[in-house]
Inverse folding.
């Protein structure tokens, strides 16, 4: 008996002096041991924690997000898992944990968690990441700093990841690329990523918006001018010459005049340019990436896009999906933009509220990722005392965002039934697909059109969610 007491005393001494937090709960989730280091880490007194349920101490957690409760259920350890949560005083805790189950009886298990504070490391890492992105926006030619790369593209949606993979493969080629996507989907992000992942990465990347200038002025900017060709003209190289050996992005090419489209086609076919007013042919080695915010086939049919130029550009085709087709990426994108604007605006925002999350999930996002970014930046400017973005932080013109969804899914209920955010998103997506299929008499083509996604994308999701269409 005395020996057992000695062992217990030694064990308690080691645990109290070890450079790590220790938290032990029984089979009911109640704390039975909590050392001083863990209290300092979480900003709590030992007396506040002992004998209380883990969810009572940390109301921001649930059975699915608490590593202690997860390990008790699965009876499997979790090693080196990073975790961020709030204590009951609203303090954010950032730790890396190892959580191990232990047997109390044949059918009952408790769990012990060993935690290290990584708050400072996490903050430094996020600041470095944001600073890298800010620096990446500078002119690569002047600053010798690369622009966007594939690491800059945020998303976990399966179909979106397939597009990224396809784009990475395309970057190894020098063939022309045509990128279609609605405004704000990130077309230039993909264009820069393709360039900086290619053998041309050490050469210029130059972008020109074809809708920003009248045709006559755009021609001189693209091909250059010769002195005396028109009043005020000087000898000046155009963007094709400046981008020699690299990549030229022609943004919104569907807005380019038809005559200029014909000249561009000749350049692509013959491999040389002639300055406006000039007589000499100048060889150019430039990879063209063109983007359009209108479906190319529709632009061709309306006469806005020359058919022969379309075929010449459409060697490698990328369709960037709108945000409404990959809503499961909204939480990840929101987290990314919050981190970004915490640094830019010198804020300390941690997350968005459940009400905002629900609104984001059933909003159609006509402005896509750019709209989401701008909304978060706008709301974060209004956050003063809170650490959470709430509905009242948004301007009055965004009232439609909170007017409710278009389907009968109870999003508020889903957010409070103990399910994780990913599980909630999957339930919502499955419900939307089921509703569309029923309304379209299970016609795949019509259902895909109603949902605003491709037929193949819908078929993939039907298989993924095991939805019966018989």
């Amino acid at each position: 008996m005395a020996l057992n007491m000695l062992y217990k005393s030694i064990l308690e001494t080691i645990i109290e002096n070890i450079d790590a937090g220790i938290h032990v709960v029984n089979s009911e989730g109640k704390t039975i041991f909590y050392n001083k280091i863990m209290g300092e880490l979480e900003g709590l007194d030992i007396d506040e924690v002992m004998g209380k349920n883990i969810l009572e101490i940390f109301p921001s957690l649930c059975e699915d997000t608490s590593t202690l409760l997860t390990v008790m259920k699965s009876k499997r350890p979790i090693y080196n898992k990073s975790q961020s949560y709030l204590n009951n005083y609203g303090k954010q805790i950032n730790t890396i944990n190892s959580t191990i189950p232990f047997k109390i009886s044949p059918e009952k298990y408790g769990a012990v968690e060993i935690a290290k504070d990584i708050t400072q490391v996490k903050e430094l890492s996020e600041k470095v990441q944001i600073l890298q992105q800010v620096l990446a926006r500078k002119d690569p030619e002047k600053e010798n700093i690369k622009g966007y790369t594939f690491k800059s593209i945020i998303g976990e949606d399966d179909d979106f990841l397939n597009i990224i993979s396809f784009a990475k493969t395309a970057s190894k080629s020098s063939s022309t690329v045509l990128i279609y996507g609605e405004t704000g989907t990130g077309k230039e992000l993909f264009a820069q990523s393709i360039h900086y992942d290619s053998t041309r990465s050490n050469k210029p990347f130059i972008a020109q918006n074809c809708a920003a200038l009248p045709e006559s002025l755009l021609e001189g900017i693209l091909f250059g001018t010769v002195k005396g060709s028109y009043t005020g003209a000087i000898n000046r190289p155009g963007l094709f010459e400046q981008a020699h050996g690299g990549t030229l992005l022609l943004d919104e090419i569907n807005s380019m005049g038809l005559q200029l489209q014909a000249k561009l086609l000749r350049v692509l076919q013959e491999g040389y340019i002639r300055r406006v007013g000039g007589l000499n042919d100048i060889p150019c080695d430039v990879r063209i990436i063109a983007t359009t915010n209108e479906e190319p086939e529709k632009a061709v049919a309306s006469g806005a896009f020359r058919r022969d130029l379309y075929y010449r550009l459409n060697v490698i085709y990328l369709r960037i999906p709108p945000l409404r087709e990959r809503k499961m990426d909204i939480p990840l994108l929101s987290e990314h933009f919050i981190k970004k604007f915490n640094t830019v605006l010198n804020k300390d925002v941690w997350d968005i509220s459940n009400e905002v999350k629900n609104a984001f999930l059933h909003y159609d996002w006509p402005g896509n990722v750019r709209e989401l970014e701008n909304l978060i930046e706008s709301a974060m400017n209004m956050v003063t005392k809170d650490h959470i973005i709430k509905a009242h932080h948004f301007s009055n013109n965004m009232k439609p965002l909170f007017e409710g969804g278009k389907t009968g899914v109870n999003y508020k209920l889903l957010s409070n039934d103990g399910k994780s955010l990913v599980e909630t998103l999957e339930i919502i997506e499955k419900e939307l697909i089921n509703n569309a299929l029923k309304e379209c008499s299970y016609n795949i083509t019509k259902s895909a059109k109603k949902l605003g996604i491709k037929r193949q994308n819908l078929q993939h999701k039907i298989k993924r969610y095991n939805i019966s269409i018989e």
User: Anything to note?
Assistant: The chain has 21 helices and 16 strands. The first helix runs from residue 2 to 17. The mean pLDDT is 82.
